[in-house]
Write a structure and sequence with these properties.
By secondary structure, the protein is an alpha+beta fold. It folds into two domains: about 130 residues, Immunoglobulin-like (Sandwich); about 100 residues, no CATH class. The protein contains seven helices and 17 strands. Strand 16 and strand 17 form a beta hairpin. It is elongated. The N and C termini lie far apart (about 80 Å).
Length: about 300
């Protein structure tokens, strides 16, 4: 009996792994039923992917952009609302995903040139109601109650600006462009994050952009958290991250799960303590990035 155990164990393992000897279903042909089934699956045509219909612009649908304040001052939010009116013959159903400031809005400055977008996700916190929603005939819907324009665009100088919604698909409904709204901006004090943006924008190479966050708890080295803001200097092939912190944090090696690499302490300036992460690919595309960033922020080495 003891001599039979190795053979029994081998058979058990073969069955568990699905590797047992073929069992012919047709004695004349000796064909394995599993092989026959797999061959039939390979020959059978695979189902085609379901095509998603393109968004449709309903007849009679218009959009309107409206300022929510009479005075607009540098350093303040400059809120606008976005409405839609349905003068068509049928109700319009739509959903409200986040609006992207850099692609869905156009802001021009006093010089007539487009104003840089520095916060792409303008509408993430501006949704009105659960999806989906309906605009009945002859009714007006408030798509976004409060869009903080100055949080998304680099509005840093007084003068006359214009803003326009360029149109966007909301679900399967294509909303058309809005009216162009002129607004005057009065002098004011920039927020700390905007002052940093003003230092970094002029040094960006061609093809690079800048996005920034609001103030929050951050961990530039993956461990110690403190209040600060991050700034993403990026192009389609690479990204550099700059952190501005209220105080210095320990620049120890991050834990193994932290895949972004080890940040480098740039030093301190009148705007705070700064850290930077420049991946190898970004160093190739922008070789003097560290020196340019440190110079723009007027860093003094700690």
């Amino acid at each position: 009996m003891a001599g039979r155990w190795p053979g029994i164990l081998v058979l058990v393992f073969q069955l568990a792994a699905g590797c047992a000897a073929p069992v012919p279903s047709d004695p004349a042909q000796g064909e394995n039923p599993r092989t026959k089934r797999e061959s039939a699956q390979e020959i059978a045509p695979r189902p085609t992917a379901k095509l998603v219909p393109s968004p449709v612009l309903p007849a009679g649908l218009t959009t309107r952009l409206m300022p929510l304040r009479v005075r607009h001052v540098i350093g303040e939010p400059m809120p606008f609302s976005l409405q839609a009116r349905n003068d068509g013959e049928a109700p319009v159903e739509y959903t409200c995903p986040p609006i992207l400031a850099g692609t869905d809005f156009l802001v021009t400055g006093p010089d007539g040139k487009p104003v840089p977008c520095v916060d792409q996700h303008l509408g993430i916190l501006c949704r009105m109601a659960p999806n989906p929603m309906l605009i009945s005939q002859g009714r007006t819907a408030l798509l976004f109650r409060r869009l903080p324009l100055a949080h998304a665009f680099w509005i840093a100088a007084p003068g006359r600006y214009t803003v326009r919604f360029l149109g966007a698909p909301l679900g399967q409904t294509l909303f058309p462009p809005s009216n162009e709204v002129p607004f005057d901006v009065e002098p004011g004090e920039l927020r700390p994050a905007d002052r940093i943006v003003g230092r970094l924008l002029p040094i960006l190479p061609d093809g690079w952009s800048l996005y920034r966050s609001g103030r929050r708890k951050l961990a530039p080295n993956g461990r110690e958290r403190a209040t600060g803001a991050w700034f993403s200097l990026w192009c389609p092939a690479a990204r550099i991250t700059v952190w501005q912190m209220e105080r210095r944090v320990k620049n120890a090696d991050p834990p193994r799960w932290w895949e972004r690499g080890v940040s480098e302490c740039l030093g301190e300036s009148g705007l705070g303590h700064f850290y930077v992460l420049i991946p190898d690919k970004a160093k190739v595309l922008w070789p003097d990035a560290r020196e340019r960033i440190a110079g723009a922020l007027e860093i003094r080495r700690e």
